[in-house]
Amino acid sequence: VSQTFAEMMFKHGFVHCDPHAANMLVRPLPSSKASILGMIDDKAWVAMAVVALPSPSAALVLLCSLLYPVDLKPPVLELDFNTRSNYAALWKALIFADAKGIKECSIKLGVGEDLYPLFAGVLTMRPWNRVIDPSMDHLVIQGSESDRSELQMYASEYFHEISELLRRLPRVILLMMKTNDCLRAVNNTLIQGSSLETFFIIGKVSSEAVIEAKLSQSKSVVTWFNIKLDKILLEMRLWAMQTALWLLRLRKALAWSH
């Protein structure tokens, strides 16, 4: 699920904005080639994306009902290039605790220079000091009572600032925030909280999308070379992150065995 929606948001810009449990199902992958869009009947569209499920013959199917009032559109959003690129760069900065990058991308998305820490907090459900914490698990939500109490306190304390933030943001970003909340709820149901693996996937896909966007706009050999160098450095960083994940899993497995 994380892989599918990360690629939708950061690479393709064609996003299903209502990813709750009732809009998802897993089915055998059809033997014949099928369109990514198809109709179950005359009332619902199906968007199908193959993800890394335990069985290579399985597919994740996303349902999108067309039973909406005339003045509303189905919950499918198409992001323009700049919005998609900036949103991917923002999540890359969030994953790697890059305060400067978070500020720059937030401003480009319409947040303003004064509310970008709050925007980062709303997206991640973590306070600013945790958002910019360099530790690898800085965005992981444990779901403990103290976590919930902390979030409630911040929501109450910054109510007016949150209202102003929502007023400033473009509609497409509000829909992306809704999608983000829905995905968080799905993850909570599937794995009882957020996980390092989820954030690794988001970091990897968003970083790849940023590199691809830069390459598509490069106009000189020097720029192209610099982007390729950035890509190599990024891959090394992701490899280090993946290695740390393996070590953490091993440590947990050893602790559990004892």
UniProtKB/TrEMBL annotation:
Which named protein is this? ABC2
Residue ranges annotated for the ABC1 atypical kinase-like domain, each copy included: 2-30
Enumerate the PANTHER family for this protein: AARF DOMAIN-CONTAINING PROTEIN KINASE 1 (PTHR43173:SF19), ABC1 FAMILY PROTEIN (PTHR43173)
**Cellular component GO terms, alphabetical:** mitochondrial inner membrane
In the record, biological process GO terms are:
lipid homeostasis; mitochondrion organization
